TrEMBL record:
Coiled coil: none annotated. It comes from the Bacteria. NCBIfam families: prfC, PRK00741.1, small_GTP. It comes from Sphingomonas arvum. This is Peptide chain release factor 3. Belongs to the TRAFAC class translation factor GTPase superfamily. Classic translation factor GTPase family. PrfC subfamily. The lineage of its organism: Bacteria, Pseudomonadati, Pseudomonadota, Alphaproteobacteria, Sphingomonadales. It is found in: Cytoplasm. Gene3D superfamilies: P-loop containing nucleotide triphosphate hydrolases (3.40.50.300), Peptide chain release factor 3, domain III (3.30.70.3280), Translation factors (2.40.30.10). Residues 17-27 have a biased composition (Polar residues).
Amino acid sequence: LSLENPPVGEAVRASTDHPTSNSTSFSELERRTFAIISHPDAGKTTLTESLLQAAGAVHEAGEVKARGDRRRARSDWMKIEQQRGISVTSSVMTFQRSNILFNLLDTPGHQDFSEDTYRTLTAVDCAIMVIDAAKGIEPQTRKLFEVCRLRNVPIITFINKVDREGLSPFTLLDEIAEVLQLDVSPQNWPTGIGGLFHGLYDLRRAQLLVADRSDGVVPGRWFDTSGIDDPAIAEVIPAPAVESLREDGGLAVASYPAFDLAAFQQGDLTPVIFGSALKAFGVEQLLDILADDGPPPQAQPARPAPVTPDEPRLTGFVFKVQANMDPNHRDRVAFVRICSGKLQRGMKVLNTRQGKPMALHNPITFFARDRELAHGAVAGDIVGIPNHGILRVGDTLTERGDVTFTGLPDFAPEILRRVRLGDPMKVKQMRRGLSDLAEEGVIRLFKPLIGSQWIVGVIGELQLDVLQTRLEQEYGVSLDFEPSPYEVARWVRSDDPALLKRLTETLRSNMADDQDEVPVLLARNAWEFGRFQQDWPGIIFSAVRERN
Ligand code: G4P
């Protein structure tokens, strides 16, 4: 422990490790495009603020909101937000640290949870999974993780709230490994949790961050050590904390795999950081891992071949469309992930689904500094394209005529409802509205083979509100929802067409077509669905369907 050297303060550590280069032009900055996945209340919002602060983007805690308000007053995309009532501000947050531009994509949780939350994860190269140390893996975290796994998105795990009483670090690590079938590699170790928390030991750099407990629990100083057994550690933290660090930290290093960059980037191993988003412990280290080891923009699956970020012509795909809820303005904003090339204001691109060109007159970028608008967006960036309903989820926009992005998933709904029409004379309008909105990706639509009452499916309740409002405003149809007899919907397919036909005939009252006429099985509950799976081993029941 080098006490004779001036102890390295957190800020000093950040600036020595990351010399800022002013000479790098905006489009040459490296990109890290990521999302934070978590269960409500695990600390996503707090961590977002803390990350912005650690990157130097915010100077005081709690300033995120205030700063947002100030910026709102002058930026041009905010005008769009105000005039058109489309909330775009929270969709992407962009910040810079040294030579890296971070694009943080919002994954709406709580009551906003929807299919968009899932689909946003197809537009990122990396995800931070936040876990509450007292609760372990919770249902929404797990669902979001499964979506990341579809594309092998690398995951960095942040175990939050170690300043409070929680489960043992070993219990948490083992749970992640077992439940998510993922190798876990702790990158730091807490010297006890809750009342026993005295700091974090950075296993990568053999440095100890000591908590200053004289003033609540706040990050104090960093100390260099010769290793976890360095006797001088006892000079800066109390004996029980030293003991716990030595024994448990030592056991952790011996028991879990070392960090392996390739395994991480393939999505097989997750580096784990213990910390406190609220008290800014572990956040700097999290940002370091994202910067140093997080993947840059990756090749994206496409026909005729995957598109790599070094392709010079612009390519991108729409992963989310937000509609205005104001009846006077029927505008939409399509959120596009740029996969290659450089977007310039006014440029012409082709929408390959329609085979039609469109000019990008007013792309909305999310970069904080105005001068950067002119420089355009590059691979890894997200832009919003205002349009009048031309762009749909899954669309490819490109300067190349011959490319279509593939693999953008649709997700089986978790809430199924029957629709009840207010005015029976409006069946036609209702059907047209439901079909349009299903095509747009707002809802899933199921037409049972028996009976005429359509069933709508959504991931989150809010989608039902959106459906109701938009049908009323855009199609003049008022409708209500009633419970559906089904709870589970799965797309079905089989290599054996005769078997599929037999399934359809045998379970006719459970079968429906979705809006693209793809067969779907509806089950009354999870138990019944389990039985169908058992009875029909040659059938593939799928909760995810790829577009294109
Ligand atoms: P979310 O976006 O994932 O839903 O979670 P959010 O950040 O809002 O955090 C949920 C609650 O957990 C908040 O408390 C927040 O202060 C607390 N929290 C987040 N990180 C930490 C941490 O590292 N340590 C401790 N001790 N608490 C943490 P709240 O009381 O619900 O809200 P508030 O009134 O404090 O805003």
